Design the sequence.
């Protein structure tokens, strides 16, 4: 349960004071403002602010294309056209600011997305709280033997118990040591923090435009992403669906749910459509590519 | 007069529909929303949307520094501290979206600022209007003989009249040709546009965070900037002053109105404070540096 | 013919002085260094410097994936894997610096690619040369009636002649006026330039990493790109093919020659593979999407 | 001692094979190529590749300013002019690629500089080595009581011994657990790594242009930066001094060794030059600003 009573009260207060604005208002997003969506055991995602809605994307596109967009009959059709043809700049006209609480090892993956603004809690200035990510037992998966970055089925109960014992004991001990070093010893905070493991929680404000956010979601809500960052991406995805519903539907159809075919794959599919049998040997694909290709097209 | 009656009516309509929001509202900015601020002879700047206010900067800084910011007594003090020490990320937490109409040669300087989102009117899709920037006679300045990129005093009346005659005639003729080529000849628009001079007006939506906007204003509202882009920067500066007044005051004190001293200049000033006479020869500065230094410090 | 005898001599001199280096050397790129590849009537592309080769991409990937990359048997296989799975950061480890001479209307499209470093010739400081892009008659295409940004067949000979007459006369007249204004009138250069049309040539140094360059080429060598910028993209593409041949082959297979299928298109193709007839009405696609889909898949 | 005999042999081999190139060669940088400069107890910085030299900056500036730069008599004068007036784009024309081994808590500060290309060793794919940063006893500084992010004098010997005991024991224990979890238990590597503290070493390839590198060095070689990242910045600074010596001298004079004066500080200094006594009360500065101002100017 990530929120203290004080935080709950603060959120309630923020949600009470509606004020008039002349700006575009996305009703679906107003419902999310400030509310903490819980992620993992102590993390959360909160919308702090947003700019624009589906209409803002349409408006920006109409500035770009001028009278040329008159032929597109409606807003959703235009948004789908933009998404399909990767006309990305109108989607950059929306912006969102999130407050995220997350383990450091997740933050390290997240920060690779460079086109965003970040203000992270500084452990040089202040003390980190005693909050560590301890996975649920069913999330303790075995290393994949075929995929270097993959997980397979969960560990057995005894192995899982042993891992949890390690994680809990090391978290407790290193935090006790952190308190000792920053407390009675008086070591500089910027040094004492180095002994904390990367499953301790940090938090940040993260601000990004919608185009780059969709790119983030495409990569991080993907089944190949690590489960822990995927949990955040899926939560954010549900928020985006309420914020810009037309854009979200187009994203699912043309990006998240899409498949890219190589020149070789196009050729194979064409032959298959003509009724030919195609084998990996004559496909021009590697064994791995062929396996991925057949996963999508082989079952027909 | 850049606005048509239709545009005036559209702006009035946009300004009529206030709706409730839970987001932070900057009253000073609400007054600007959608209103066209005229710049040059046919240009304008309009605020289309904004995110955040002075409070949002403070809030982001407090997330970063945690309890460490408690010692700063008030919001304005914290903003001044951030500006002075170039802690720039909290200022990235505010964002603004502008609609700008501007001549192409100004747009070409403007676009060098890469950290922004842009949707420009496309002359591949649509026809440009017959609107050209024709400078006021007093803006027709002579080339500086000492500064390669500078202007000096205005031309004499006959020279100015000749320049205006050239600009008006060429604008009219090339636009007539543009209409002929895109009209009865039927040449592709993407080709016909190449014959138009760079004082024709274009327009775009331009979205940028406050930190990068201040950097833009520092460079483009500077006396060394070309007068035409400076006119836009000064207009935007007045809007920013209403949007985030604490930040604007700090910007004037620590950035726009500040001076950077080189190692040599620091040394010279120290000697001058001790009552020594310093000459260029022993200053370690070039003749040009020395001249710039004496412009600031020599009159005392 | 874009090069003066002085420029030819300068290039010959630059190409004479080979010096030893410990850095990776791409033999295919050394052959291009400094040589001007002519584009359009007065433009060119010259390689000024480069960093890295196919091997540098492999090396960076092996740092990232550590022993995890040992399973990929060879360099080309690894590069193809990275390209296929959009692991883009290793491609950012190569960099190229080009000297490009190009018309201003092409430069305006080009500069939208923000992730690059640019130093453009400044018409505030210096005088532009009397060089304008005048299309070949067969490039003078008619505006498409179905595609707002498209061209169709060439104009007839009389229409083409009229367009060339306009372009040549306006170029000559505006340049004469430019000389008059910057010459005997003494108008500031930063003002006089505004009267020049956008088919005048400018030049710049442009530096970009390989990942972003491939993205640029994907968009600008595409048949939907304007023919004039495509001419530059195709020239650069031939240079890249010599620089990083493995990467270039992977790019052709997985990016430039690839097709992305939406969820609806995947579903239709699956049904077609099972022998079903699919119509637009039941495809879930718009008329336009269906037409594009059938262009690729309908001929089988 | 960060390098294994295998690594030493690999570096020696890389340094043996000089090959001819037509590109600019920076002799001062060739001497550094591949050599590991040791930083902290197990870290290093190695130059893997570079593009350009002082001459490349001058060349790019001359393309920009055309004949306008002829008046600047020599290369160093031009570089100093560019640095003084913050004409930053010519410095973006040089690029460097480094191989860096560094503790994770340093990497987390470093990565905030977003304008760079990064390939980091992935602990999802591969196993991290048993190497932790354990500070030298004299680096174990006490938390500053006046500066939230500062250090003061070193701890006493007993306190230091206790801190080192904690750091060593926790490093050993958490690494033993890491081996147990990834080894006989078979937990996915992406999960097992979360238990490791942030003083474990990681490594990456880091590529950045010279302008952004100088900005990094200005912030991270500053006395306010944490000592551990400063050690890297100082090492890189010495390399840059050999690579682009003219640029480095200009950087020291106009950036690293410079001071920026606010409007209030300019006013105070002017009054002091006229012989007036100025007090904090009438200075317009806060107590903290005044203290910083007097540190620089008060001793005269």
Sequence:
């Amino acid at each position: 349960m990530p929120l203290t009573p004080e935080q709950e009260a603060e959120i309630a207060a923020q949600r009470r004071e509606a004020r008039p604005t002349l700006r575009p208002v996305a009703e679906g997003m107003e419902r999310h403002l400030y509310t903490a969506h819980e992620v993992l055991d102590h993390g959360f995602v909160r919308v702090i602010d947003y700019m624009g809605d589906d209409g803002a994307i349409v408006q920006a596109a109409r500035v770009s294309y001028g009278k040329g967009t008159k032929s597109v009959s409606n807003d959703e059709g235009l948004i789908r056209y933009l998404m399909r043809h990767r006309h990305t700049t109108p989607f950059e006209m929306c912006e969102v600011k999130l407050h995220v609480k997350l383990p450091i090892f997740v933050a390290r993956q997240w920060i690779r997305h460079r086109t965003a603004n970040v203000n992270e809690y500084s452990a040089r200035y202040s003390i980190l709280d005693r909050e560590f990510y301890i996975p649920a037992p069913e999330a303790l998966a075995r290393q994949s033997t075929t995929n270097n970055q993959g997980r397979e089925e969960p560990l057995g109960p005894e192995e899982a118990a042993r891992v949890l014992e390690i994680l809990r004991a090391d978290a407790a001990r290193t935090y006790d040591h952190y308190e000792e070093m920053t407390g009675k010893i008086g070591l500089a905070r910027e040094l004492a923090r180095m002994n904390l493991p990367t499953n301790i929680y940090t938090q940040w404000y993260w601000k990004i435009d919608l185009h780059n956010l969709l790119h983030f979601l495409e990569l991080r809500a993907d089944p190949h992403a690590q489960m822990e960052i995927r949990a955040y991406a899926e939560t954010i995805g549900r928020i985006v669906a309420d914020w810009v519903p037309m854009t979200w539907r187009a994203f699912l159809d043309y990006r998240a749910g899409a498949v890219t075919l190589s020149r070789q794959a196009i050729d194979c599919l064409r032959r298959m459509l003509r009724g030919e049998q195609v084998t990996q040997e004559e496909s021009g694909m590697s064994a791995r590519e062929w396996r991925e290709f057949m996963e999508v097209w082989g079952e027909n």
Remarks:
- The longest helix of chain D spans residues 157-185.
